[in-house]
Amino acid sequence: MEKVLEVKNIEKYYGNKSNLTKAIDNISFDVEKGEFVGIMGASGSGKTTLLNCISTIDRVTSGKIVINGKDITTLKGNNLNKFRREELGFIFQDFNLLDTLTCYENIALALTIQRVNPKEIDKRVKKIADKLGIKNILKKYPYQISGGQKQRVASSRAIITNPKLILADEPTGSLDSKSARQLLEIFETLNNNLNATILMVTHDAFTASYAKRILFIKDGKIFNELIKGNDTRKQFFEKIIEVQTLLGGDLNDVI
Amino acid sequence: MLFKLSFRNMKKSIKDFAIYFLTLVLGVAIFYMFNSLDSQEAMMQVSNSTRDLIKLMIQMMGMVSVFVAVILGLLIVYANNFLINRRKKEFGIYMILGMRKKPNFKNNITRNSICWNYIISSWISNRSIWFAIYVNISRQII
User: Fold this and answer.
1) Are B99 and A101 an interchain contact pair (Cβ–Cβ within 8 Å)?
2) Is some CB atom of chain B closer than 8 A to the CB atom of A81?
3) What is the ipTM score, two decimals?
4) Domain limits of chain A?
């Protein structure tokens, strides 16, 4: 299989010499084409920092991140912009849709930036909207639709450019359980039918159980790895809970 | 599409712009008022004794106007930052989507609204700074 993402010994430090925080401490892993990988960890374990580094928002202190054969840690300026618009798709916890544009235009914007011609844009937007079940809200503005619908619009914006890698940062974080389930099922179909590679960061075991492989991160290091294999989702979910208890998960911190 | 985006952004932030314009216009107007105090008609028609007083006042004004210019400069910088800050998140989204930073003017003048807003704001602040400097220099000469 073709490797889409290679993370090689990356480290990320915050602060200065006297007060050094190792947010990421020597992490290496690979993601192959068509994989659905989840990254789990308690808050402060460095999972979002890891995603920020992969998504070129943040720079690593040392190490290499290779996406589709390109070392992204050395990209700068226009090359970086080009890379972002052509190879990456982002989904955020708080949607990040533009209020001034309708849903249709929000989705189309990703393609407009790539200078695709308008006829082609129209065709592709309609196709993707049909798939994600948001065809009837395309003319509405983001403030007129529900959170679940917003996240679906954001997801269509992320995947319409056919990116090599889709990065999702707590995509279900601000959704209710029903919309979360719908969204995750959409992710699953995208992964299965369109062969999209998804990297999802989450702290929620239920959300993570939709992934095919899960990396657990603790104190900036990879703690464990779980592969779904032939398990059902329920079995996988129970395994995740087990590892999470081992990890000294959120529950102990709360109580 | 991008024209639509820039146009709607302008429409949405028209209130911000109104405040911005008003602040700058007011600032420059006050500055001008201070500096042109001595060339007012009312000042010409005073008796000899008060004229000496006014001369002293004008000399003082010259020093004060430098101080006012510094404050006006800070105000302009602040107003610029204020406008940019209000749209920080939006710019972030553009960057994440990979929008080009430098628009291609040959292809499309309204490539993005960032550029337009930037041009307008920098033009205004440039104007007012130059105006302030000009007034100051002319005062020194006179």
Assistant:
1) no
2) yes
3) 0.80
4) 3-92+164-254
